[in-house]
Structure of non-specific serine/threonine protein kinase:
Amino acid sequence: MAPLLFLFFLQFLLLLSSPSTQAQNISLGTSLTTQELNNAWLSPSGEFAFGFRPIEGNSSFYLLAVWFNKISDKTVTWYTKSSEQDPEPIKVPSGSSLQFTSTGVLSLRDPTNREVCNPGAAGAPDASMLDTGNFVIAAAGGSTVSWETFSYPTNTILVTQVLSPGKVLRSRLLTTDYSNGRFLLNIETQRAALYTIAVPSGNLYDSYWSTPSDENATNQVTDLVFNMAGRIYISMSNGTQINMTFGVTSSMENYYHRATLDPDGVFRQYVYPKKPGGISQAWTVVSTKPENICNAQTKVGSGTCGFNSYCMFDGNSNQTSCGCPDQYSFFDKERKYRGCKPDFELQGCELDEGAAMAQYEFNLINNVDWPQADYEWYTPIAMDECRRLCLIDCFCAVAVFHENTCWKKKLPLSNGIMSSGVQRTVLIKVPKSNNSQPELRETRKWKSDKKHWILGSSLLLGGSVVVNFVLISVLLFGTYCTITRKEVQQLQPSRDPGLPLKAFTYAELEKATDGFKEKIDKIQHETEKEFAVEVQTIGRTYHKNLVRMLGYCNEGTQRLLVYEFMINGSLNRFLFGDARPQWSLRAQLDLGVARGLLYLHEECSTQIIHCDIKPQNILLDDNCIAKISDFGLAKLLRTNQTQTYTGIRGTRGYVAPEWFKNIGITAKVDVYNFGVILLELICCRQNVLLEAPEEEQSILTYWANDCYRCGRVDLLIDGDDEANLKMKKVERFVAVALWCLQEDPTMRPSMLKVTQMLDGAIAIPTPPDSSSVIYSLS
């Protein structure tokens, strides 16, 4: 991949001659690596450090960063970002290095010594980590600065730092997640403003706080300044200053100072005592903008806490928190800003008032409001009538009542707030506690559909032979079941008493399917041997993530297999269609396929190697549970057998390298196939894509490896908002996939290890390039 560049502009170093900015020069030819115990360059006082910081929760990746070095939590104040068009954090794997070369170039390199980025400065005589927290590279000649971290702020500003118009602070997603967050402090020509930003498009919603602006454009912003007295202000062209925060009473000499745009959208100024002495050794908030972000409303967007949630502000701690109404829960307890979802399904457009009253009730909450979500309102009106009108309206999820006025609201609810100053009563519609969940649409649909009606009747009537035959017939007719015609010699019926399959006649199946009228997929012809293998193999297995065979036909030249009903078809059709499935569902499918393979490899009485794991052979039931199918190529290993020799099997793009070598085939061929599928599920694209936007993206397995080595896994999920919010899990899944794709089969993990790594139960070492041998996870 092309090297990524730092953002950079030229700026003179402030207060270069003051004692606080004394430099400890870094000599040409000096380097740092992630493996070194002291992998940082310190400022003269040791209060600040510049070097590699491990990313919280993922010791395999590092940031090149600046941090407070003498406090316990090593608070990061700056970190490398990529290009100006896509300013995401640059994450480098273990084994990376930072080199200040003999030619005066600062170069960040990955473990293969490939340059990831450099600031563009060349010929510098030295570089320095200053006691202000600014890392600088001197210009040729040494009298000026060619590059400095203060010119490229992340989410933090430090004392003596100045931001000119065009500069921004961007919040993180979480304190422990350095990905771009949802809030922006923008220094504009007319004002400084805080915005909610749409991820990943970058669209700015209306500002939720700003300094006054000059409509006549005669008085413009020159800088945002964090001065030596601890005051942060906007400097205007006419000489006036607009305070963002006021000077703090805490001693500048005895406290560390910083101001940060936090993940909840609040710009906070903090202090931290340099010496213990009965004072809490922690960052303390001394000023905020806005003072209460819960009161900051926006016309578009979810607000601070996400849709269907409400924001609460604690004036004592200057912190915000988020809550969900009763019978609602957070989408993600760690990332509460994603909002809340109802723990039920609202139904009832076809219900009359009596039926609606029997099915729903209301929970009441006081001092809560969602001011942006009403679609209809009434006044004057009594609360009982407000409640009734919401009850009989299937669009109405919440009614808000205040002083004889009723607002009806539908989901999603936005800009929620809970406060003693909010004089509202909220009525939230929920199912009655003694009432079962409303029928799902698919459950009701069968009543008007003949095939589903027969299926429902069969389930009610019970287990007679005739009813079972009708059930299987409907499964065949409705079907993503596999029905194949084979013109091969007659296969003798199985006499294995342990084979729980029903033998059908061809006439029975032909009649049940109306002459095989509805064909979903075209199945390739199999040999008699392959047909026998599939019957015998899957007939003896039963697992949640394996398609269950119900029966077969072995009559004359006819070979038919009867599988359970798979309403959602194949993963191939599901994953590569027009709409991208949600990340949470794709992650669930990853684990389902992995557990199915684990069963085949390690939990069967006879180990089974599938040999052709691919999206076409993974089917989805009505709950989108992944089930492995098509065992026509499977190989069975005896208890004392570890490998087998066979001809090349599988499908282009999924075939493990050992198929082309004169070595034994093991269960690791399935592990390789799973690695390909795992990447396809992550990226929602096929492994081989000849019409890819860039040539380097044509083969997904190669491109994913390149992205991982450069710390740019985010490129693999570009445009996927949900996956971007789960970046840690995405990085974990990509690492697992790269382990599965090792060329040497002995380097690949077992499926037990794979499931443990996917679940986060065990740590994942950095996967090596295929040409190197570093770890073994077998």
